[in-house]
Write a structure and sequence with these properties.
Elements lengths: L31 E3 L6 H8 L6 H4 L17 E7 L2 E7 L24 H10 E4 L10 E6 L11 E6 L12 E5 L3 E4 L6 E19 L2 E9 L8 E4 L11 E2 L4 E7 L11 E4 L11 E6 L3 E4 L6 E4 L3 E10 L4 E8 L8 E3 L4
Parallel strand pairs: 12-15
Antiparallel strand pairs: 1-2, 2-3, 4-9, 5-6, 5-11, 6-10, 7-9, 7-11, 8-9, 9-10, 13-14, 13-20, 14-19, 15-18, 15-20, 16-17, 18-19
Organism: Thiohalorhabdus denitrificans
Pfam families: LysM (PF01476)
InterPro entries: Bact_Kbp, LysM, LysM_dom_sf
Length: 347
């Protein structure tokens, strides 16, 4: 993945089936809001709604302007009530077209759904591989560097070998992630294999074949020591953050862990879930986190009563595999821990 600053935008779906009522707005929701540089769609949704995942029910698309789903810094968002339903409309700031510009100007960037300064670098450092696809059986590996050192840094020239080069498109046309060994992830309840978590040591580009099945390559970025023997696999394309937050379907899963195995995590950090596309989960789905249930003595009956876990916070899914997903903690009232339960926020 090429880690560059992305121009991100919001894609809003057609009018919803369920309509908002004015009672579902925040009590302090402003009637006019001017979008600021650095705002995310989630920030703006949380400014108007107690439940930010209901954004698409509030946003009023204007079919008479170009790119009605893009929101830019400087745009004014106007809250009004139409036929008893709240609607958020936009007054767009004027921008020069490229043809009309006579001198360079600083271009405004459409806002993103989440903080890409966190998400994009994260996806450069971590990857998910679905079960049934052994990561080390495909891709390739780093053979040695020109100077045959123990470790290689950004800018170093190295030699790599692909395991099945004849089955690949031009390997020089994409980036490659390097990693040491894949980590198999299992479900904490069933023990089922959910896939692999890869911790990238770096990102490489291949410049061309040199003979004997080798490719001259260059280390473009490092996250950990890049060494001979590191495995390689092709990076995905640029990350697309054009999605709308919405309630996840009626699913139930668990927080497996923080990616770096921290025991307690909070807002802005990223966790791994034991849910994926197989469970109907998509990028943009919002989940509610509940703590583990707990037993208490029942004062009127013999034995104990099982109390449901307390609500702890909200997650936004931003990358999915078949049986695993990455999600960002958007809010939390208590620390989120492994084995915490995740459910649809509308349960």
């Amino acid at each position: 993945m090429r880690l560059r600053t992305l121009l991100l935008a919001l894609t809003v779906l057609p009018l919803p089936v369920w309509a908002l009522s004015p009672d579902e707005l925040r009590t302090d929701a402003p009637s006019v809001y001017t979008v600021k540089k650095g705002d995310t769609l989630w920030d703006i949704a949380a400014t108007f709604l107690d439940d930010p995942w209901r954004w698409e029910e509030l946003w009023d698309r204007n079919a008479y302007i170009s790119n009605p789903d893009l929101i830019y810094p400087g745009d004014r968002l106007l809250l009004r009530i139409v036929d008893g339903e709240p609607r958020l409309t936009r007054q767009r700031v004027e921008r020069l077209s490229p043809e009309a510009e006579e001198k360079p100007v600083q271009r405004l960037e459409a806002i993103s759904t989440v903080d890409t300064s966190v998400v994009v670098p994260f996806l450069g450092r971590y990857g998910i591989v679905d079960p049934g696809n052994e990561p080390t059986d495909r891709g390739g590996y780093l053979v040695a560097g020109q100077n045959e050192r123990a470790m290689y840094a950004t800018g170093d020239r190295v030699f790599t070998r692909l395991k099945e080069p004849e089955g690949l498109e031009d390997p020089t046309a994409q980036d490659w992630h390097s990693y040491k060994e894949p980590e198999a992830i299992r479900d904490p309840d069933s023990g089922a294999h959910l896939g692999y978590l890869l911790r990238h040591t770096g990102t490489l580009t291949m410049e061309g074949p040199t003979g004997d099945g080798l490719f001259a390559s260059r280390v473009e970025r490092t996250f950990a020591p890049v060494e001979a023997g590191n495995h390689l696999y092709p990076a995905d394309g640029d990350y697309e953050a054009r999605f709308t937050p919405k309630a996840a379907p009626d699913v139930e899963g668990r927080v497996l862990r923080h990616v770096d195995k921290e025991s307690l995590v909070g807002q802005g950090q990223i966790v791994v879930l034991n849910l994926g596309t197989r469970d109907g989960l998509e990028k943009g789905h919002v989940l509610r986190v509940q703590g583990s249930s707990r037993s208490v003595d029942d004062p009127q009956r013999w034995g104990s009563a099982e109390l449901p876990g307390r609500n702890k916070g909200t997650l936004l899914v931003f990358q999915t595999g078949k049986r695993l997903s990455f999600a960002m903690i958007m809010s939390n009232s208590r620390a989120i821990a492994p084995r915490d339960r995740v459910v649809s926020p509308e349960r």
